[in-house]
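Sequence only, no structure available. Ideas?
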Amino acid sequence: MTEINCMAPCLMGIEKLLSDELKFLGASDVKAENGRVFFSGDISLIAKINICSRLAERVYILVSRFDAYTFEDLFQGTYSAPWEKYIEKDGIFPVTGRCLSSDLHSVPSCQAVIKKAAAERLKSKLKADVLPETGALYKIKFLLMKNNVCLMLDTSGDPLHKRGYRALSNDAPMKETLAAALVELARVRSNHTVIDPCCGSGTILIEAAQKALNIPANGKRSFAAEKWSIFSPQVWQEQRELAYSRIKSDCAFKGIGYDIDDNALDICRRNARLAGAADYITFKHRDIHDFSESFGRASVICNPPYGERLADIATAQEIYKTMGKVFTKKQGWSYTVISPEGDFEKCFGRKADKRRKLYNGMISCQVYQYFRNEP
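Reply:
I predicted one. Tokens follow.
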């Protein structure tokens, strides 16, 4: 099996970042759409992206794509897909998915049709009277949008933002993939000092450290496709070994996190240890009002509390005003702040040098970046 068509879903707003990452990892035919990026690659690349991608939510094999206006269209299109190339005779293949702006809008009905068609195809091609479904798990995912059907197989299992290092978190943890996107937007490199003055669970600093050290994002976890016959165990072993061989041992990165919650700081330290980044990050009890550093250069990245998350709106706006005072213009310094507050710039006291729309869960946010330091 050579080139395989694939798709990686991502957080809305980071499609270009993910496209660039996939190209860097070796993907071809990369094409971004809203909330997803299509690409091609071989078995080794699928394993590599699962292990190394910091921005993808999952990696799907795109088994088929076709238009369907009726259930007969859906059945025939699904039956025509080459399921036998991937699913074994005893494979377990549950079906889940979504219908958006399509003539076929009943998810349970579409699930039933796709399940039946895939089963009929497998029985025909694998010469089986019965499919016992006692073996490896092959999750079939469908997306029916504007009458176009994408049929996919989930190679990841748990979503890729579940790195495995966040055994504990505070009340409002940020997704690791969103934290990684902020780190990418801030252009963090191996010699950077990164500060998060509202560090919560430490996710931003851990993602920054792992990027700087080139620690594979998902090197310690397992994936659904590891149990599939089309992937030999050697493929996963080789890609893990290759990823770990590229870790930078002489990295000059330094991470500093502040919070006023001692319990949150303990969680940060534990998470950093699990992530392999504890030697590069320091966590301290400090209020945002007392923010002051003497570093010549630094990147501040933070996700401050806001009304819908932890604090009431008035308190959140006061935090933004404080940030505007303590995040002063200094040569070599940049500030990257994510917030859903429409009046953030007004509270902060100056217009951002760059803005970008992202989503934190279901909450629409703006990333405000300040990096121009002339008076």
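The mean pLDDT is 94.
Hope that gets you unstuck.
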